Amino acid sequence: MTQQSTLKTFLWFSSGLQDALNFYKETFGDGMEVAQEHLDNEHLFTADFAIYGHEFIGMSMPGGDTFNNSISLSIQVDGQAETDRLWEAITTNGAPGRCGWCTDKWGVSWQVTPYQMRDFVGHSDQAKAEQNWGILRNMTKIQLSEFVS
């Protein structure tokens, strides 16, 4: 064997793969790269791309199952401003969920989580940690200012 095995997340879009790639490029900027696109009779059939270094293969073909929340893409971000920016972009034509989960226009489930949240839910004071877990369970978009420090 000459090639090392790799793992990529495969996303089957029943339609709109090109729109999804454009949206992800606009949302993630330099953090999103398209490595290769494959056309089938003049329409985009598959694309290899990466978001923040995580590799994906996207396919555009009618008939696929719809995305659901049993698998989500978790984005760890630095601070409230980046949490707000990504949350707003993803939910604009998508939908908010609970505890930082949201879905984009295509139904792909995302988790937008600031690194700083872990300091609150992992607080050294067990009572404060438990209080913060309770606060988190009642949130949609994560709001760092609502946690107890």
Helix content range: 25-40%
Query: In the residues, how many domains can be counted?
Result: 2
The beta-strand count equals 8
Mean pLDDT: 95
For the termini, the CA-CA separation is: 53 Å
CATH 2nd-level architecture of the largest domain: Roll
Order of strands, main sheet, comes to 1-4-3-2
Determine the structural class based on helices, strands and strand pairing: alpha/beta
DSSP strand content: 25-35%
What does this structure look like?
It is elongated and about 60 Å long. The mean pLDDT is 95. The termini are far apart. Helices cover 28% and strands 31% of the residues. By secondary structure, the protein is an alpha/beta fold. The strands form two sheets. A four-stranded mixed beta sheet has the order 1-4-3-2. Strands 5-8-7-6 form a four-stranded mixed beta sheet, with helices on one face. It folds into two domains: 7-64, 2,3-Dihydroxybiphenyl 1,2-Dioxygenase, domain 1, CATH 3.10.180; 66-149, 2,3-Dihydroxybiphenyl 1,2-Dioxygenase, domain 1, CATH 3.10.180.10.
Give the arrangement of secondary structure elements:
Elements: E1 9-13, H1 17-28, E2 32-40, E3 43-51, E4 54-60, E5 73-77, H2 80-91, E6 95-96, E7 101-103, E8 109-114, H3 117-121, H4 126-137
Parallel strand pairs: 1-4, 5-8
Antiparallel strand pairs: 2-3, 3-4, 6-7, 7-8
List keywords for this structure.
149 residues; alpha/beta; 2,3-Dihydroxybiphenyl 1,2-Dioxygenase, domain 1; 4-stranded mixed beta sheet; 4 helices; 8 strands; 28% helix; 31% strand
